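Progress against Task 2.4 (sequence-to-structure conversion) is shown through the following example record, which the project officer requested during the mid-term review.
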Amino acid sequence: MDDTWRSAGASDNSVRKDHILKADRFAADVLKLITGAEVSPALSVPLGRVEEQAKRQIALIREPYKIGVIGEYGAGKTLFLASLLNFLDNLPIGDRATTGNVTRFRLRPVDQGTHTRVADRQVVFLSRDETARCLDDLADQIRQSGATGAGLEDLVQKAVSGDPAALQAWKSRATGVDAVLNRLVSQLVAVAASAARHPSVLGTTQALTPEDFADLVRIDAGKRALDDRFWLVRQVEVVLDVPAAVLDLGKLAAASAVQASGPVAPSGFGAGTVLELWDFPGIFNDVSDERDQRLTAVLLEDVDSSVALLKAGNPDSPAPSVLDRLLRASGGGAIAGVGNIFDSPQAVRFRTPGLDNETAVLQELPALEVLLRKAGSLASATPFLYAGLLAYRWLDPQPDTSKFDQRVEDQERNAEQARAVALRLPEDSTLRAQLLSATGDGGRAEVLAMLADQLAEHGLRRRWARVEREDGRLRKLVAELEAALTQAPEADASISAAEAEFQVVISGLQQAIIRVSDLLPLVFSAGLSDARGDEVPFSRFAEDCAARLVYRWPQWRQMLDSVNGREVRQGPELTDELLEPFGETCVAVLDAVRAEALRRWESALLRTAEAALRADEAEVASPDLALLRRARALAGEHDGQWTVLAEPEDWHGILTEAPADILSDTAGRPDPEDYTDSFPLPLGSRFVWAYPARHGRDPDDVEMRHRVHPGYVVRLRHEVVAATVHRVEAEIEKVRDWAAKVAAISVERLREIATEAAPPQPPAGVSEARTNLLELIQKMRQSSPDKPRAGFHARTARRK
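Structure tokens generated for the chain above:
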């Protein structure tokens, strides 16, 4: 078979598919060739790079095609997807609901049934780096919004560093704040507070219940807490089993699919997926718009084709300019239309007599003309009209549409009038075809046909561009491996010298670990005393945590909301009512403070290790021969457990990720009731306002007057905070002892690793194996020559 690469024309899809298939075969051949290859340690690094790139290339070629749906808040994007799939369960659809996080629908075909069913759900959370970039981006937008004042800048920076309480307090006090600035501050506070409250979820993937799924994809400004996990979601993923009676997935996916030699989806979550639909949050929502637009721009990079929906009820919206920017940044390639078309206020005008030509219709419905023109500017294809409720009703004659009130009936009446108008238009009228499609099945069949064309052209072109880029990287790495194999005999001759160098480095590492062990008492005595960089002092951190939670108690709000003049009139009757939130607060504060203490101790330990490993730099003739530099160089040549000694930053987790049962005497998680003895108020005491009227009150009793004054409530809060901090600080001393023991155990294990380390020896026959591998790689490269560089879109090259 001729595997020579040929240049692809702009519309030559057969050539693109041919190129992709050859890239798949080449990557598979490379992977098969190097798997299990016996080489010397010096060649393990280039061999590993080739293996990683080959797997990456195969995964890219065989992954399902992705279609993203973007548009303005309320444009009907989720209903659009629901009507395509005949699926409505727990989706954020209705008169008020809207999508709050990216929802990734993984579609796989099934033969039986008439309704789409959920097979699995999960949520993917932002990583620490992604969260940090999100906070930095929101902070930059706040600075660019025109907000002035060094005080605000300092508060913004503190929030980015993980302490949003002061910025939230500023927001609650500020008056006359611009709506955009108010929203940006709210989002910054929410993401920072959520990351501080839920650090363990960052970078994780978790299974979802139907209730959790509904909560994480739906914006609900009234109920959405500032530290909710909602703000840390990267995407929510749903595996849907789609019957052939609902949607012929095979036909749609085949429009751009390449028949690779392996499965199109990995095993595990989403196995069997042949196509993906991504539902993006609506732009211009007044809760999380800036965060959503940023995440949309990032994730849209992975989408092969897009659908852009305009809002029928908002023809003057600036949304098309934002959508155009997003599409251009991701390589373009969209079909565009108007969603919920018969829900537009002007849709009733289809009943106007005399609408028998396109001009008359567009004059009577000027919003429709504006929307079609704007949709046409977003895509090269003719824009479509879509009525999601009609399409959903067409799929299921008796669907549950209770959440839409009378919208279904209203749209059906408007559609009947629009169809009558369409039938009076000339046969060659574009508007006639658009209206007939929308009034038939809501426009569903037309959209599916456009999607198939779009995937067959633009989707395949985007996939081809990505594959060629990855294939170029793989071929370059294979060439580097070939060069390394050619030079390997010279490396074999220097094995004895390398062994001697290895032993020198290992000896130095052993001495450095001993120094670290000797310095452990100092690390744990001073690890919390000094704040570094933007860190707040540790005592202040504990106090801030306690205050943030204590001040949130509803009992304080109940008291202070009842202030009349200088008196508090109502609130809890007994001090006992504050005992339960006090215990829960102590436990929550202890969790946060313990995590921060472990992080700071671990940071101090890593700094100490770094310094110990660099301690010999002043003792050698050349800085290039310093221990840490030599150890890192050898780590790239001699793989093994010992390499962790050369990278102190890899010791991360010694304390922060240590299992709680690593020491047998470790105490378990405390119970809130354990903190009763630290409660700062006498138990069983009534508040003044709770005494029955018959007891009366002496107006001259100074103490009595003090206890009904709002300042008394403020002082009580301070006492509760102080008691919480005092108790938590006592607990932290126990944590210090535990952490010191764990660190000692971990450092001792590192010393054992250094003692046991030895340079890996090449296996017997490695020289012959190397020669064979070199010959095979040379033959493979000769049978699959490098392709010429393709003329990609200039903007794609600039983007990458």
